[in-house]
Each structure stands twice: as C-alpha cells, then as structure tokens.
C-alpha cells in the first residue's frame, strides 16, 4: 500500500483519516488486516487505472487542434 494522505507514516494521528493506494491484488489482504485491527475502512475509488484512462481521454479531446496549436506545444527536433 502507498500513502496518498498523509504523505508520510510520521504524519498519522489517532482518529484522523488516512488514504491508501492499494493494488487490486492486495485489496482483500489489506481489508482483512484492517478488520483484524478493528479499523473502519471504505473504498473511495474502485479503479484508479480506469479513472486515469478516462482523464487522459478527456484531456486529449480538449487539446486544441490545427496548425496554430502545433506551435503552442513543445515538439522534439525529429518532428
């Protein structure tokens, strides 16, 4: 698991919410460990990868097209 909030284990405080990123392959293990420690948990984002893909698709759709926009973005020398 990776901390999203707080960004460090040193910043964890009693009765404060923390957010973790957990790989799908580890989710059941983490849920079981939290339950064993009587820590209440809930999933905020079911599929982060799907959210990233959706955001990337939206950003690409909003990207300006046309000759003028070519000069507004960095292009390597090979282009």
Task: Explain how this protein is built.
By secondary structure, the chain is mostly helical. The protein has a two-stranded antiparallel ribbon with strand order 1-2. The chain has helices spanning 27-36, 48-62, 67-70; strands spanning 2-5, 19-21. It starts with a strand and ends in a 9-residue tail after the last helix. The chain is 37% helix and 9% strand. The model has no long low-confidence stretch (mean pLDDT 81).
Rg of Cα set: 20 Å
H and E string: EEHHH
Kindly give the count of domains. 1
Question: Strand share of the residues?
Answer: 5-15%
Class by SSE composition: mainly alpha
Beta strand count: 2
Main sheet characteristics: 2 strands, antiparallel
- The coarse overall form would be elongated
Helical content band: 25-40%
Task: Please give the alpha-carbon distance between the first and last residues.
Answer: 40 Å
GO molecular function, one term: metal ion binding
Protein name: Carboxypeptidase activation peptide domain-containing protein
InterPro entries: M14A-like_propep (IPR036990), M14A_act_pep (IPR003146)
Pfam family, one: Propep_M14
Quick rundown:
This protein is mainly α and 79 residues long. The chain has helices at 27-36, 48-62, 67-70, and strands spanning 2-5, 19-21.
SSE arrangement:
Layout: E1 2-5, E2 19-21, H1 27-36, H2 48-62, H3 67-70
Antiparallel strand pairs: 1-2
What features would you highlight for this structure?
79 residues, mainly alpha, two-stranded antiparallel sheet, elongated
